[in-house]
Amino acid sequence: MYLSLRVEGLGKRHGKNWIFRNLNFDVEAGDSLALLGANGSGKSSLLRTLCAFDPISEGNIQWTTNGGDSPREHVPGLVSYCAPDQSLIPDLTVLEHIAFHFEFRQPCANTSAEDTLELALLQNKGQVRVRNLSSGMRQRLSLSLAFSTLSSAVFLDEPTSHLDENGRRWFQDLMSKRRDGRTLIVASNHNGDEYPKGTQSIVLQP
């Protein structure tokens, strides 16, 4: 059920400028990987490439689930994703947004819109429009949607962005209790709170 990846000679460029090049690594199903680097090092671009959101410039990525290869066009539907610049729909209420999300993606077993609302600590914000939430509340909503979506892997880009100290503790608890053994890939600015201890890592240079 969980996603594994094999990356060989992977490169990505914008115009004539290479963002990263000659990357080779494997991620076994159910394992975790941290993509580490400073701003501008290409970790977000690499994360989106591994999600099959963005095309590669050279090399190859092999995605595998249930022992069989998954075509690139199927991969976005297999993963959950959360990033600081992820677009939420500002004019929807929080509950409307959660319900809209689950019209397109299947929730985890026994997970309702109200469960996701509670998971995000937004029980009293269900009828509030998303645009009126604080940045930390929006981040909790995005993360809760990612972990509440049935998927083979969870991809997170700097997940504790916009979270205060209590929010960071909330995220660590979320990651521990709601990962459910899924493959986890996190892009992080060397923040050890954003991925499990013992996670293998790749360090990208700007």
Structural class: alpha/beta
CATH overall fold name? Rossmann fold
How many distinct folded domains? 1
Name the CATH superfamily assignment: P-loop containing nucleotide triphosphate hydrolases
What best-fitting shape do the alpha-carbon axes yield?
globular
User: What is the rounded distance between the termini?
Assistant: 35 Å
- Regions with little confidence, pLDDT below 50 for 5+ residues: none
Strand percentage lies at 25-35%
How would you summarize this macromolecular structure in one to three sentences?
With 206 residues, this protein is α/β, with parallel strands linked by helices.
Describe this structure in words.
With 206 residues, this protein is α/β, with parallel strands linked by helices. The chain has a single domain, classed as Rossmann fold (3-Layer(aba) Sandwich), CATH 3.40.50.300. It is 26% helix and 27% strand. It is built from five helices and nine strands, in the order E-E-E-H-E-E-E-H-H-H-E-H-E-E. The strands form two sheets. Strands 6-7-8-3-9 form a five-stranded parallel sheet, sandwiched between helices. Strand 4 (58-65) and strand 5 (68-69) form a beta hairpin. Helix 2 (94-104) packs across helix 3 and helix 4 packs parallel to helix 5. It is globular, with a radius of gyration of 17 Å. The termini are far apart. The model has no long low-confidence stretch (mean pLDDT 96).
Layout of secondary structure:
Layout: E1 4-14, E2 17-27, E3 32-36, H1 43-50, E4 58-65, E5 68-69, E6 79-82, H2 94-104, H3 113-119, H4 135-148, E7 153-157, H5 165-178, E8 183-188, E9 200-203
Helix pairs in contact: 2-3, 4-5
